[in-house]
Specification:
184 residues, alpha+beta, 3-stranded antiparallel sheet
Length: 184
């Protein structure tokens, strides 16, 4: 009787040992499988310096603001990211079917941030060369606001014209008395 108990205990120990061995081995195979994966191509130094930005332009067909995403070199945004993004908005979209909302000839006199407000000082062409109409003016303002508020530190945008506050578009439909915030 004592011999049968010993045989049963040994059988149980062998089975338990076998299960532990198989579990350990399969985990090691999973780990070695994971470490053997190599990328199809190495990431270049240039690719490591890229970042994604979002610019908002007017869709020519629908008239709605549409996001255009671009990959750019991080160094472009190093000095004054707000001014760089505005310059890209003025230059216009890369995608077909979109158009800039900022009038040609508009210059950026100054851009700075205080707290969470970006102050933009545009040249007089911003209002004098604008096509007018409330809908177009709203698209212009929010193409700027939506683009700049993609940056985490920006909540509001304040627009000045040639250093003067409280200006408006020529037709008077929309003024720049208050700070603008993202309109989601």
């Amino acid at each position: 009787m004592k011999g049968k108990i010993i045989l049963i205990v040994l059988a149980i120990l062998l089975i338990a040992g076998g299960i532990i061995f198989l579990c350990t081995r399969s985990r090691q195979e999973e780990v070695s499988f994971q470490t053997e994966i190599t990328p199809e191509e190495e990431i270049s130094e240039e690719q490591q310096r890229k970042t994604m930005i979002s610019l908002y332009f007017k869709d020519k067909q629908t008239g709605e603001l549409t996001k255009e995403t671009r990959m750019i070199d991080v160094k472009v945004l190093a000095n004054n990211p707000y001014k760089e993004l505005l310059e890209m908005l003025i230059e216009g979209p890369e995608a077909e079917g979109l158009q800039s909302t900022i009038p040609k000839g508009t210059k950026i006199n100054n851009v700075n941030i205080t707290g969470n407000i970006v102050y933009i000082d545009f040249s007089k062409e911003f209002i004098e060369e604008h096509e007018g109409g409330l809908e177009n003016e709203i698209k212009t303002i929010y193409s700027i606001v939506d683009t700049l508020t993609e940056l985490n530190e920006v909540t509001f945008v304040r627009i000045l014209i040639d250093g003067k506050e409280n200006q408006s578009f020529i037709d008077g439909c929309m003024n720049f008395i208050e700070n603008f915030e993202r309109n989601d």
